[in-house]
Every structure is written in structure tokens, then in C-alpha cells.
Amino acid sequence: MSKITIFNHPLIHHKLTIIRDEKTNTKDFRQTINEIATLMAFEATRDLPVKAVKTTSPIAVATTYTLDCEVVIVPILRAGIGMVDGIQSLIPTAKVGHIGLYRNEETLEPQLYYAKFPPTIKNAVVFLVDPMLATGGSAVAAIDILKKQGAKKIIYMGIVGVDQGINNLSSKHPDVDIYLAAKDEKLNDKGYIVPGLGDCGDRIFGTK
Q1: 75, 73, 55: which is closest to 64 by C-alpha?
Q2: What pLDDT is recorded for position 2?
């Protein structure tokens, strides 16, 4: 089954307070989303493979370590874009793919409208990022797409989620680890996470 990590860290709690606040402006909201993503990525990358290399310091030759894998970040458009810079600040060599999904208003199922990935995705560690894990439908669909592209190691990173989305994702893709900054109470009758952040995409890009 999926490893599910809900962060319990003072800095993340502090920054969650900022993004939950309805009075937080677009600049501060976007910046804080990225800061949370950076803090989460530090832990989510703990098990990335490394290889030993010899490095000559000013004093002596040392055995040091470098990453032994490609890293690809794949945001689910559009809100997932808000987490990319925060992760790339730790892994500047990471490549970025994109998945665009919208909800069919008749079937309520996610529909793909855009997908583009680096050619290295088959052998990379892929971080699928989306701030909100609500029903989990978009995350499940995105992982289906990534696996069809040949991705083998996928990690999901979000900001807030609820049991419905967590359980849906972990049951459909038990090989995908899940990292969340917070687990919230429930979904309301409109499908919004409670207490949540509101519409994360609108708040990141200032479109509402």
C-alpha cells in the first residue's frame, strides 16, 4: 500500500495558516505555496538513489555522493504549477512535464486536454504535484497517464487533502507514495475541501 505522510512541522503549520487566510494576497499566497513545496520536497526526496564519487577538496580526496536518477516534476494544470518552483529550488536539474485535465460536467470524470513529458520520464523519479487532493479523480487519472508513458516510480505531493481522495488514490495506485502538508475534514456539497484553501488556482494566479 501507499506510504502516506502528513507533515507535522512548525514551519509548515505556520505557512498553512498564511494560505488558509482569505485575506492573504496573491503574491504572498503564491510565494507561500512554493515555500511549503520546498519544505515537503526535502523530506519526499529522502530516498532518492545516490552514487559514490571521488571529489578532491582543497585538503584531500573525499568519497562524496551525487543523485543517481533523473527527476521529473509533473504539475496538474493549472494549480500544480504553483508548486514547481519550490521543488526546483532544491533540484534545479529537474525537468518538468505537464498534464492538463478538466472535469466533464455530465460524467464528472476528468478529461485530458494536454500532456507533454520529457523523454527521460521512463527512468525518472516522477513527482506529480497538485495542491488539492479532493476526490482524487484527477490524481488517479494523471497517474494512469504517467504509467502509460512508462513512468515506474511516481510520488504524489499535495498541500491539503481529505480521506476520500487519499483512499481513492492509494487504492487505485498502491505503489504511489502520498505526501500532504495537511489532512482536512471533508468535502462540501460543491466538492471543495473544508476548511481548505478555497480555489487554489484562482488564488495562485489572481484570477478571482
Answers
A1: 55
A2: 85
What is the rounded radius of gyration, in angstroms, for the C-alpha atoms of the chain? 18
Q: For residue 191, name the pLDDT band (cuts at 50, 70, 90).
A: confident
Rounded to whole angstroms, the Cα distance separating 185 from 196 reads: 9
Q: How many CA atoms lie within 13 A of 51 on its CB side?
A: 5
Report the catalytic residues.
103, 107, 199, 202
Task: Give the amino acid at 22.
Answer: E
Instruction: Tell me what percent of the chain is helix, strand and coil, each rounded to the nearest 5.
Output: 35, 30, 35
pLDDT in tens, 164-187: 999 999 999 999 999 999 999 999
- At 86-109, the pLDDT tens digits run 999 999 999 999 999 987 767 667
Interior angle at CA 62, CA 56 and CA 68, nearest 5:
95
3-state class (DSSP) for residue 101: strand
What integer best gives the mean pLDDT of the chain?
A: 95
> Domains along the chain?
4-205 (3.40.50.2020)
In whole angstroms, give the CA distance from residue 44 to residue 156.
9
Instruction: Give the Å distances, CA to CA, from 56 to 65, 67, 76, 137.
Output: 13, 18, 42, 50
The pTM (predicted TM-score) of the whole model is 0.94
Sign of CA dihedral 2, 84, 45, 124: positive
- Quote the CA–CA distance of 205 and 144 in Å, as a whole number: 27
